[in-house]
Structure formats: structure tokens, C-alpha cells
Design brief:
Bound molecules: flavin-adenine dinucleotide
Largest sheet: 4 strands, mixed
Radius of gyration: 22 Å
Distance between the termini: 54 Å
CATH architecture of the largest domain: Up-down Bundle
Structural class: alpha+beta
Length: about 400
């Protein structure tokens, strides 16, 4: 992949090409008032957009041509993100597939795995999900109990995952499972690729408070996958899971688009104007605060993206972007509840319940991808260099720990 810096003319030509594509295809999603509880209609819009992007030679810009990418530079990627930031986000439901699973496959996959999976993932002909969390292993995901046991040329998976976003519409999932329970909990985990239609995989929806069913429980009963579905090295799954979580925090906190954005402030300013409240000095002050917070968050995202462009794997700084974006979401939610008043909790108002839904779904941000407390721990330990939490499980074999549901088995 060439890293040559583009000349101003080349950059401008590429920018114009992106803009022409976006003018035609990034036209928003018309859901016809359907709240789309399972996210499948939004995903369909994303797939159509991504196929058009592939046909236009603009999908997977920095991934190698032999694996279905365009083999272009990080500068092309930056320009694309800057332009996409000015249009409606058409690929929101591909965040996990493209922002987390794709970079992991590209970084850790063998040549055979990349040849088999990358091009279809890039074009969204296949969709991928992330299967990490379990009922007894969320923040402390290294306590996971789902196991993969080797049997000849296959791995047999048994266990349960939970909160798996879009598992019901995914073709593949990246899973972490325990491959050696006799060593310390972080040391005996491996990562695998699982076809979601494999016999023994059962996906059950979880019903959310906002009416959505966007994530799922997954049960694995003697699920057989070929030995070559191991991703990365055996028992190196914890390091890989950490790398994937960093990609996740960048994907959630810094988004798939670039540039300075203040969408929530813009939306609330428009609403305040409509309601004739925009001259209220206290409200103006709060709206301005939101505008500044969102602008600052964009700048932090741009710095993280610049680090990625410089070839760095996202580090703990990704936690900062995620924490800021969650705090901004909470600020915007409180402000919207004040501004809209009782209508903000109504399901059947002229917005089709979108304010109420927004207020409820906003709470997810501080949990998904690691809770705010966990992001603060990471920033404390690894950015600020503060002393780490005491880890009583250090060096103790996993099968001697009382974690997850293991305590119930005794
Ligand atoms: C919208 C959404 C989508 C999700 N999608 C996926 C997905 O696609 N795939 C997937 O694998 N998972 C997914 N998750 C799960 C998510 O990663 C977990 O919910 C999250 O990591 C927290 O784990 P938990 O729910 O088990 O809570 P717990 O870990 O049980 O935490 C409970 C509370 O204790 C606090 N806490 C725990 N440990 C500490 C500590 N050491 N220091 C301070 N406080 C602590 C937490 O902050 C939290 O407030 C999703 C979650 C949400 C909300």
C-alpha cells in the first residue's frame, strides 16, 4: 500500500469523486415511520449503500486490492471520512462489521482467511457481529466460560453469549472462548470465526425498554467449526480481544466519519427555534455548551484518527473519545428532556416517539463497548499512570476461580 502524500490537485480530485458519490447515494434512510426495532431495515439501506460504494471503487480504501480493498493511502481515507461527515450516515449498522471485525481480520487473519472473508465483508455482502460478553463476564470479560475444545480437525464450542448486537442478521461472528482452563484467566482464551448458521447456534432476541430488539442472547450447543477458523494464535485471544475493544472504542467514540460535527446541538437549536424558545438566555447558554462539547469531541476523534493514520493500533486514548462521546450524549439527552418537555416521553407525538426513544437509547452509550467506569479505569491506569486495581485472580488457574457461574457448580 502506497503511503505517498497526495498532491493538492490529486487530493481535490479524489475529494470531488467522494462528494459526487455521496451526493447521489448518501440521501438518508426513508423508514416510512417504522421504528425498525431489529435494525434490519437500516442494515438493508447500509448494504445497498456499501454495494454502490464497492461498484464505484471506493469501498475498503486502505485494504489491499487482492482482498477486495482499493489499496489506497490513509490520506484517501481521511478525505473520505471528512466528506462523509457532511452527509447522513448510511452505514451506522455496519459499525461492528467494518469498525471492529474487518480490522481484526485484516490484522490477524491468515492469507487464506483474508482471501475468504475480507472482500465480502468490505462490500457488506456478509455482516459480522462480536461475541464477547456473557452473563457472568461483561466488564471482566476475561472470566468468560464459553469453551472451545479441540476434536481432530474441528473445534467444538459450548456456552452462552449475551448482548450480541445484530447477531440475528449476521452471517459470521468473532467469538472469544476458553481453550485452556488450567492456566490464569487471561492466558487460556482464543479467538475464532463462527458462521452464524452453524448447527447448534441459537440466537434469541432481547427486548429493550425502547421497543427495540437490537441485540440477542446466543446459545452454543456442540457447535462444530473447522480448525482453520482459529483467528490469530492459540491462547492469544486476550491480547486480540483487547485490540478489538480498542477498535470498538474508536468506532463508537470517534464514529465512522471525520471532521468537526455538532449534530445534537444543531438538532436541538432547530427544535428550540421551532418552539420559539431560542431567545431564552439560560437555554442558549446550555445549547452553546453542547455545541462546544461536541466540537471538542470531534477534535479528540480527529487526533485519534490521525494516530491511526500514522500506523498506530488504537491505544487506551480511544477510551477518552468514547467517554467524552457518552458524556455528551447524556448532556444532550437531559437538555432535550428540558426543551421538549412532556412530549419528550410521548410515544405517539409528531416525531413518532423519536425523542422518547432517543432519551432511552442514550443510556446504552455508557455501557456498550465497556462502561464509563471501565473507560475511567483504563484512562487512570494506562494514560495517567495511576496505580492499577488489585487483581486477586492474578496467576490463579481459571478453573480454581469463583467467577461467572462457576461458583454455582460447587
Ligand atoms: C447497546 C449495547 C450493545 C452491546 N453490544 C455488544 C456486542 O455486540 N457484543 C458483546 O460482546 N457485548 C455487547 N454489549 C455488552 C457490553 O459490552 C457489556 O454490557 C458491558 O461490557 C458491561 O458488562 P455487564 O453488562 O456484564 O456489566 P457489569 O460488568 O456486570 O457491570 C455492572 C456495573 O459495575 C461496574 N463495574 C464493573 N467492574 C468495575 C470495575 N472494575 N471498576 C468500576 N466499576 C466496575 C460497571 O461499570 C457497571 O456499572 C452491548 C451492550 C449494550 C448496552
Amino acid at each position: 500500500m502506497s503511503q505517498a502524500v497526495l498532491s493538492p490537485e490529486e487530493a481535490e480530485t479524489f475529494r470531488a469523486r467522494c462528494r459526487a458519490f455521496l451526493d447521489e447515494h448518501a440521501t438518508g434512510m426513508n423508514l416510512g415511520g417504522d421504528p425498525d426495532p431489529r435494525g434490519s431495515r437500516r442494515l438493508d439501506h447500509g448494504k445497498v449503500f456499501q454495494q454502490a460504494l464497492t461498484d464505484a471503487g471506493l469501498a475498503g480504501l486502505t485494504y489491499p486490492v487482492e482482498y477486495g480493498g482499493q489499496g489506497l493511502t490513509k490520506e484517501h481515507e481521511r478525505i473520505w471520512r471528512e466528506e462523509y461527515g457532511n452527509y447522513p450516515n448510511m452505514t451506522f449498522e455496519l459499525t461492528i462489521s467494518h469498525g471492529m471485525c474487518l480490522p481484526m481480520l485484516a490484522e490477524y487473519g491468515t492469507h487464506e482467511q483474508k482471501s475468504m472473508y475480507l472482500a465480502d465483508n468490505i462490500a457488506a455482502r456478509t455482516v459480522w457481529c462480536q461475541m464477547f460478553s456473557e452473563p457472568g463476564a461483561g466488564s471482566d470479560v476475561a472470566s468468560l466460560q464459553t469453551k472451545a475444545e479441540r476434536d481432530g480437525d474441528t473445534w467444538i464450542i459450548n456456552g452462552q453469549k449475551v448482548w450480541t448486537t445484530l447477531a440475528h442478521v449476521s452471517d459470521y461472528g468473532v467469538i472469544i472462548a476458553r481453550t485452556d482452563p488450567s492456566v490464569a484467566k487471561h492466558a487460556g482464551i482464543s479467538m475464532f470465526i463462527v458462521p452464524m448458521d452453524a448447527p447448534g447456534v441459537e440466537v434469541r432476541p432481547i427486548h429493550q425498554i425502547d421497543g427495540g430488539k437490537h441485540f440477542n442472547e446466543i446459545f452454543f450447543t456442540d457447535v462444530e467449526i473447522p480448525a482453520e477458523n482459529l483467528l490469530g494464535d492459540l491462547n492469544n485471544g486476550w491480547n486480540m480481544a483487547t485490540a478489538m475493544l480498542m477498535y470498538e472504542r474508536v468506532a463508537i467514540g470517534s464514529g465512522s466519519v471525520g471532521g468537526v460535527r455538532h449534530e445534537r446541538a444543531d438538532q436541538l437549536i432547530e427544535q428550540a427555534t421551532k418552539l420559539g424558545k431560542v431567545s431564552d438566555p439560560v437555554l442558549r447558554d446550555r445549547l452553546m455548551q453542547l455545541y462546544i462539547l461536541e466540537t471538542t469531541a470531534s477534535l479528540v476523534s480527529m487526533r485519534t484518527r490521525a494516530e491511526l493514520q500514522a500506523g498506530k493500533t488504537p491505544g487506551p486514548g480511544g477510551s477518552l473519545g468514547k467517554l467524552i462521546s457518552t458524556n455528551n450524549m447524556n448532556f444532550a439527552r437531559d437538555l432535550s428532556l428540558e426543551l421538549i418537555g412532556p412530549a419528550s416521553v410521548a410515544w405517539e407525538d409528531e416525531s413518532g416517539g423519536s425523542w422518547a426513544r432517543g432519551a432511552l437509547t442514550g443510556l446504552q452509550g455508557g455501557i456498550a463497548g465497556g462502561t464509563n467506569e471501565i473507560q475511567r479505569n483504563i484512562i487512570g491506569d494506562r494514560v495517567l499512570g495511576l496505580p492499577r486495581d488489585i487483581d486477586a485472580s492474578k496467576g490463579v488457574p481459571f478453573n480454581e476461580l469463583r467467577v461467572g457461574t462457576q461458583r454455582d457448580e460447587r
